[in-house]
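Budget justification note: compute hours in this period were largely spent on complex prediction jobs such as the one shown. Inputs:
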Amino acid sequence: MTASTPLFALPYPDGSDRPCDFAQQWCDFTEAIEDVLEGFQETLNRTVPMIPIAVLSVSEPLSITSFNNIPYDTVTIDSAGWTAVDVDNTMISPDMAGVLSWHASATITQSQVAGAYLLDPIDSRGFLNEPNLPYMDQMDNNTAIIGIPLPLPVMFSDGGWTPGLSGIRNNISANVAATVPLTHSNYAVYWHADGGTV
Amino acid sequence: MTHLCGFDSLDCPEPENFAAVAKQLHETAQQAEERIYCMEQFLRYAVNRETYVMTSTADMGPFTSSTGTDPTAGSIIFSPAHTFANTFLNFPIPFNSTIGRTLPSGMWHIGAYVATFSVGAANDNTFRRLRIVKARTNPSTGGNTFVDEVSHTSFESANGVQILMTVSGVFKIEEGDRIMLLFAHGNTSSNVSIATGALGWFTKLSDADVVRVI
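Corresponding output:
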């Protein structure tokens, strides 16, 4: 009658077991240990050496019509299949639950028109499950290149994202100019934590 | 009584087998330790990724003005010419030169915070710009090619208030990349400095070898 430990169910012989069964029980024990270690390894594999992360960037200057999403031209990294730029090059679509960190930025050349810009993350699912996304605006007095950083707080996602179909885009608008002359944009999303109860 | 099926006794561990049992258990223990040790190294790394935090211990600058529309404008801050403390550093110190820092390859979260002030008169509504730039040396010209950047622009009024600025972003660092923390401004009536207590930070998020991890 094999007994087992309470947390990981590691089997061990008890006083009623026959010594002749010891070899099998030993094998059962080592296999159970291996199963536990495999589970640990699977968790580790999500954090070391790589985490789920996707970064898109704009590397060639372009003009964007105001109130449009930034079309990214480069997949800097995508370790988890969160981008599908051939389907939609404006979006990162995490498909896992957990706490994710978001970073976006836009660098705008002198517009020739004084006004202001707004960098606005858009949840394509219509804010169903996230709190309202913060945005960043920036005045332009037509004398300088304008840099708009948008580091978002970590946010909880419930999963259910569909790569290429649902995710978060970065919408950019100008309150005066019809077009936004963009030289750089960098958009990153990465896994921060699983989000389960500790 | 005849024993048709024989009467040999079944094997059970005898004292002469105990050494073999001990030897086998020793091997199993060593195998387990090897696995656990490897996992422990990964665990330690997962909770202690390469991180570098710098805090300036003297004003940086004063810096002269730049043209606001010059995409390459700016002075490097936290350069070897500046006085700062390595507030936290858990990996070999990155090589720092007048053309930027060299970080180990990977995905890095990089940020900076500064408080700028005009050392004299402030021109009304002039720009202040804090940038993090990933640069590479152009093999043709020997100059910098700005590959990627995040930046923050603000404007100072004639009242001459301190302008507090912060910027951060995620960068992919590869062989030959340099990270430059740059500050530029358009104040022509006086130079602009960055006050003691400015911060620069680098945290490695991940390796950059593309492997599907989920």
